[in-house]
Amino acid sequence: MHRFSRDGVTFHTYVSPDRGLRATAHVIEFKNEVLLIDATFFPETGAEVADLIKHIGKPVAKAVLSHEHPDHWSGTVAMPDVPFETLPAIRADVVKEAADRIPTNVANSPDLVLGHTEIDGVPIEFRNITHTESNNMIVAVLPEQRVAVVQDLVFSGVYFAPGYDRPKWIRDLESFRDDPAFDTLLLGHGTPSNRGELDVAIQYLKLLTEVMDGPDATPEKAVKAMQDAYPSYLGADFVLEVLIPEYWPS
């Protein structure tokens, strides 16, 4: 658990154990309510997130599912009474992936409204970043606290999923480097970080693009190149060895 406070708001980041690839859920605590973003992969880690909210002792004003990948929504089963708002396109992708396993608090939840809003008087902006690690990625920005919840736009210490359009993904991260609204990042995998993590992510994605798109590239060479470049990262057996061939350019 990682926690810090800024300008009257406390940010609680739950980081899953290594077997859950350090997937996160963020509980953002305001004066009277909390905002929950994502729920981790396993029912037991989702239950620990639910216990955190219970310990804080404030009602959930809004829960948000950032994107369609199961390491961020599967844990919602541990909090069945909390509806997870998301975009219709994200919900449709969850349905496609989960089939009859989709939790009812995702399947029957309200649609998330993008743009500027407030919770407990604190301004929040919800953005949608398309065609990066996932088809749609919800980002939450709290400009007064200078914090952005970027989820799987940035990983720390975990291999990145190859994504859909890496050049666009890189451009989006480059634009974030110059965004005046935030300087602290809450990630989808790993501990809270700062703007410097964007440079690490950009360099990772540039190398991944090079080893996947080169004229003599093969999945096997690409996997080895990423392991050689980032030997301490988690998830090689799945993120690299399974997903790189799955996302291989046709």
Automatic annotation (TrEMBL):
Protein name: Glyoxylase, beta-lactamase superfamily II
All copies of domain Metallo-beta-lactamase, residue ranges: 22-189
Pfam families: Lactamase_B
Species per Swiss-Prot/TrEMBL record: Epibacterium ulvae
